[in-house]
Amino acid sequence: MTELLVADSFLVANGKVRGLELHRERFVRSCADAGVAAERFWDEQVGRLPGFGRWFPRFELRPSAELAVQLRPAPPIGGRVRVAVHDGPDPRTAPRVKGPDLELLGKLKEAAPDRADEILLLDTDGTVLEAAYSAVAWWEDDTLCFPPSDRPILPSVTARLLRRIAGTEGVQVSERAVTPQALQETTEVWLVNALHGIRPVHAWGPSPIDPLPNSRSAEWQSHLESLAIRLP
Predict the structure, then answer these.
(1) Residues 72, 78 contacting (CB under 8 angstroms)
(2) Quick check: 231 and 51 in contact, CB under 8 A?
């Protein structure tokens, strides 16, 4: 596998994308920090993406300062998700940049116990940061919560879109440090990313599946999908 300095992926469904401008902003900024201007490359390659079918392209900056795109078919969209907690400190070397740790995160996820779909990473104080390939959000009463943004976490495009929706819907948003134990006692926890949108956590470790009959995820997933715009 080619080591990556920067990477960014998003779902293209029949020529529409959620949060494309935010993906561009994140990729271009990370490339600039690595000394490479990527604005023109991004705009040219986005204009070449297919306007039909389902795709999950990955924009890349490689160690040779080469910019590239992998046009990949989109994997199946997941629904409920089983989560395990990583045993040990956060092993990432560049948590705020998508790319350098992708291979490591893939291995962590493959080795997750209890056949978990995702694995949570913890800060030095034992509070939740994010999952290997997803940001974390949860509900406390009628407040939509996220881990503190000043922690070592990737700036999640989907989490930013959820904050926008919350503002439109008049829903209070809060940033709070939370332990895995506290999350497991919370009514509703979501893992969110560009591919799946929202996946509610239905099981922790080896615990049985919780059906979550009153989940808000379907309504908010619909809000997310309504934000998809056609490729330029």
Answers:
(1) no
(2) yes
Long-range contacts of 78-81 (CB under 8 A, 24+ apart): 78/117, 78/196, 78/199, 79/199, 80/199, 80/200, 80/201, 80/202, 80/203, 80/209, 80/212, 81/117, 81/118, 81/191, 81/199, 81/200, 81/201, 81/202, 81/203
Answer whether residue 1 is part of any domain.
no
Instruction: Please indicate, yes or no, whether residues 17 and 101 belong to a single structural domain of this protein.
Output: no
Is 93 in the same domain as 196? yes
The answer to whether residue 159 scores a pLDDT higher than 70 is: yes
pTM for this model (two decimals): 0.95
- Residues 60 and 91 grouped into a single domain: no
Is the same domain home to 114 and 172? Answer: yes
Do 156 and 219 sit in the same domain of this protein?
Answer: yes
Give the tens place of pLDDT for each residue, 164-189. Answer: 999 999 999 999 999 999 999 998 99
Structural domain including 66 reads 6-70
Q: Is residue 165 part of a domain?
A: yes
Q: What is the pLDDT of residues 36-88, one digit of tens each?
A: 999 999 999 999 999 999 999 999 999 999 999 999 999 998 888 999 999 99
Name the domain count of the chain: 2
Is 130 in the same domain as 199? yes
